[in-house]
Write a structure and sequence with these properties.
The complex is a heterodimer. Chain A is an alpha/beta fold. Chain A has helices at 24-38, 72-82, 94-100, 102-111, 151-154, 160-165, 181-199, 214-217, 221-232; strands spanning 44-49, 63-67, 87-93, 116-121, 172-177, 205-210, 239-242. In chain A, helix 7 links the parallel strand 5 (172-177) and strand 6 (205-210). Chain B has helices spanning 3-13, 29-40, 51-63, 74-89, 116-120, 138-155, 165-169, 210-231, 251-266, 284-291, 308-315, 334-346, and strands at 18-21, 44-47, 68-72, 95-100, 131-133, 159-164, 202-203, 234-237, 245-248, 271-276, 278-280, 297-301, 321-325. By secondary structure, chain B is of the alpha/beta class. The chains are: A alpha/beta, B alpha/beta.
């Protein structure tokens, strides 16, 4: 009989502890499957900073750093510059990457660090209990915006992919969504491309995943997928936002 | 060589080929020197976006098993506090140079010893202590830079080289080790190098289980106690005989004190000088022993009295302690200190102590 589905080798075999309907587990799996497909598990060093994202270090079967809130791109810079033969990625949430870590992500992207960044955007602070995130959408109720995000005082959601794409240096920037199987399959292709750019020695690749937080959104898992599609997509358009020019042959690969 | 450049070259001789840093006066010659030298040696120099980022870049660099250094000056070190706490928690060996200037706040760019308390009390949130070495000459800055890398590796801890603007900026002749580039870090048994043929590893300061974190912190404490037993360094100058006055001072101010002590001794005054080289761990026992045979102590610092608290702890109230400090970028003169020495001695009971 043909085996049609199995655990990714790069994934530790244990049940995810995430809340029902959270897409972290699915994103972990996509990354693990691509690591397997590219045969790079023993070259990978991942970096997981503060927030729910930190727990990826308990699920991936590769060397992992735990990092401070927002600083994963700096840690990745240190690791990759000293060991360019390693495949280095960060896995960051929206409070982490789009608020406290804006300086680190912008400058790592601008220096063209040869790292891959996975950015999980669920429009809310998850681990701290549902406060407004830089990516919360206008009108979104959170524990710190009880009357909804007010654009007069809180501004509009930060479009990190577009912000980074405005820089000259980064090679690859794409936004995907986890709200439907079709989108998840597309996301897997994008994760693979992002790693392939790093393997080819092209600088900085970045994937933004639109994700859910049923617990802090106060919705069922199904409701939150619908909410993501209806409320987040208008602010966060999907697709490849920046791709390397055709003549970018990449750098010297160790 | 200029102090900052001598520290930079000493780091290379110690085997450090990777540097991450952010410019700040009065230490910028260190990154400038290394930005020129490291790429030609096959290493890297990265100018970070901030000292916050720097402190995490060296976390990443050390975590993959690299001998790494950064340097900054007082306000920049404050920004590194976050990363220093993570480095301590994750037990990563790095060397951090602080060429101190006058504070608080923006303060000024002139030399000071304003960060003694910050440096010797852990430097950041959490519950830990670090090794801190205080050079009193450019030659000693070279020697202690090399020692800093050895101690960082041996004990898997960040080590602070606590210099000041004078050490960084002055020029003195130095003897460098003959080795042009020292050995790489030995980190085979813990670094993240890609899990080829072994179980995956983690570099982390996260312990969500309170029992584990309790055990971790006491493990770090036990290691610091071991460092205190094995690595405490000090200079006791002219302290062999019973003293009427013991001068205590560290770093560049101790260098000036030495001239004042020499002048006092040439007048027949019974004065000695105690200078901690490891300001952390502090040579408490050695100082206590010498204070035990001193009538009075004069503590001299380029701040408002920070090491003073350690000196008081060593004295345990057994003799009076005077303090003479200059800060804000002022440097005490040998004559000024000699005047204080005479003033302190004048406080002693007439006809000596029974």
């Amino acid at each position: 009989m043909n085996k049609v589905f199995s655990y990714a080798d790069a994934l530790i075999r244990k049940p995810f502890h995430y809340c029902p309907g959270c897409t972290h587990g699915t994103i972990h799996r996509l990354i693990a499957e691509v690591i397997d497909e590219l045969g790079i598990r023993e070259r990978v060093v991942g970096i997981s900073p503060v927030g729910c994202s930190v727990f990826i270090l308990d699920y991936l079967r590769c060397d992992m750093f735990q990092a401070s809130h927002g600083r994963a791109p700096a840690v990745a810079t240190g690791a990759k510059r000293c060991r360019p033969d390693l495949v280095v990625f960060t896995y960051q949430g929206d409070g982490d990457l789009a608020a406290i870590g804006t300086s680190e992500i912008v400058h790592a992207a601008n220096r063209g660090e040869r790292i891959t960044v996975f950015f999980v955007n669920n429009a809310v602070y998850g681990m701290t209990g549902g406060q407004m995130a830089p990516t919360s959408v206008p009108g979104q109720r959170t524990t710190t915006t009880p009357h909804g995000r007010n654009t007069e005082t809180d501004g509009y959601p930060v479009n990190m992919s577009e912000v980074l794409a405005a820089l000259h240096t980064p090679a690859y920037i794409a936004r995907v969504s986890m709200h439907a199987p079709k989108e998840i399959i597309a996301a897997r292709h994008v994760v693979k491309k992002a790693f392939e750019h790093q393997l080819a020695g092209r600088c900085f690749s970045f994937v933004e995943f639109l994700s859910t937080c049923p617990t802090n959104w106060g919705m069922t898992p199904v409701e939150s997928l619908r909410w993501l599609e209806k409320e987040m997509l208008p602010y966060f358009p999907l697709g490849e936002i920046k791709v390397p020019p055709a003549d970018d042959k990449g750098g010297k690969t160790p | 060589m200029k102090g900052n450049e001598a520290i930079a070259e000493a780091a290379i001789r110690a085997g450090c080929l990777h540097f991450f840093g952010y410019p700040i006066t009065p230490q910028s010659e260190i990154p400038e020197y290394l930005s020129r030298r490291l790429p030609e040696l096959g290493g890297c120099y990265v100018q970070s976006e901030s000292e916050v980022a720097t402190s995490h870049m060296i976390y990443g660099a050390a975590g993959v098993g690299t001998k790494v250094m950064t340097s900054s000056s007082s306000p920049g070190i404050s920004l590194m506090a976050e990363g220093i706490s993570y480095l301590a928690g994750a037990e990563l060996p790095v060397v951090i140079v602080n060429i101190m200037r006058a504070g608080p706040g923006l303060g000024g760019i002139l030399p000071a010893q304003s960060d003694y308390a910050q440096t010797t009390r852990g430097m950041a949130h959490g519950d830990f202590r670090l090794i801190a070495l205080a050079p009193a000459s450019v030659q000693e800055a070279v020697d202690l830079t090399i020692l800093a890398f050895d101690l960082a590796e041996k004990y898997r801890t960040p080590v602070i080289l606590a210099g000041d603007g004078v050490i960084g900026q002055m020029m003195e002749p130095v003897v460098l080790p003959e080795t042009t580039v020292g050995p790489p870090l030995k980190a085979d048994d813990w670094a993240l190098t890609g899990c080829v043929g072994r179980k995956p590893r983690k570099v982390s300061s996260m312990f969500l289980d309170p029992d584990e974190l309790n055990a971790h912190n006491f493990k770090l404490k036990a290691r610091f106690a071991e460092i205190a037993r094995n690595e405490t360094r000090f200079e006791a100058y002219a302290c062999d005989e019973p003293l009427d006055l013991l001068v205590t001072s560290f770093g560049i101010s101790a260098r000036i004190c030495r001239s004042a002590v020499d002048a006092a001794r040439s007048e027949g005054l019974k004065v000695g000088l105690f200078r901690p080289i490891t300001i952390s761990p502090f040579p408490m026992d050695a100082l206590r022993e010498i204070i035990g045979r001193s009538q009075r102590v004069l503590d001299v610092e380029m701040n408002t009295g920070q090491m003073l608290h350690d000196v008081e702890m060593a004295a345990q109230g057994r003799c009076p302690i005077d303090f003479f400090g200059r800060c804000g970028g002022l440097i005490p003169s040998a004559e000024g200190i000699l005047e204080q020495i005479r003033a302190s001695l004048a406080q002693l009971p007439k006809g000596g102590v029974p």
